[in-house]
Amino acid sequence: MLYIVATPIGNLKDISLRAIETLKKVDLIACEDTRHSKILLSHYQITTATTSFFQHNRFVKGDYLLKLLKEGKDIALISDAGTPGILDPGYNLINMAITNNIPISFIPGPSALIAALVVSGKPANKFFFEGFLPRKTESRKNRLKKLAELDCTVIFYESCHRILSTLEDIAQLWPEKEIVVARELTKKFETILRGKPIDVISAIRKSSNKGEFVVVI
Ligand code: SAM
Known about the structure:
Blueprint: E1 2-5, H1 17-25, E2 28-31, H2 34-43, E3 50-52, H3 58-70, E4 75-77, H4 90-99, E5 104-107, H5 112-120, E6 127-132, H6 137-148, E7 153-158, H7 163-173, E8 179-183, E9 191-195, H8 197-206, E10 213-216
Helix pairs in contact: 3-4, 6-7, 7-8
S-adenosylmethionine is lined by residues 9-10, 79, 81-83, 86-88, 111-113, 157-159, 182, 184-187, 212-214.
């Protein structure tokens, strides 16, 4: 069985009993970054063996994990944060398992996408998740123009390096739009910024652009 196990997006307490139980009982845990996941695993005295499964080894390691699954081993897949498969290489392993008729089971839990959507207070009955916007300004602006045509809530992830430039692009395109920026959700410096793009930009400039961000429009 391949268990897809959601883990916290910051606060170590945001993990389910079933997730802990599963991580303790499987033969192997596939982590994006084993050193990063060690913090969570040792916090809950989980001593199961770990192996890395990340963007650059996803095909070679994927084949190896598939071989173990075919031999009857139980493997848990976790990502650095949140729900595996949402914008991380977990997607590839899940697909390989499905194609090879390996049974899969999902242990649900946090995802920054859903957390940000809920705290945003924006309509959640219809929304579009963009993942990460293109890095280059021109392509980012073009993509934002396309997203502006949608008649639903739009959510995307952004890094601390690009949050201000992305918000500046949004300020140019939609100066009057009320947006929400969720920073460091569930962590010590959690901040939810609401307002026109220009107001959110100045709030970030006054405080800090460090950390992880989700933008909801
Ligand atoms: N699988 C993860 C999930 O379920 O949310 C997402 C992985 S994606 C590679 C990482 C991005 O998620 C970060 O760059 C950031 O934009 C967002 N993110 C993750 N944790 C966050 C948090 N605690 N607060 C705000 N954004 C977060």
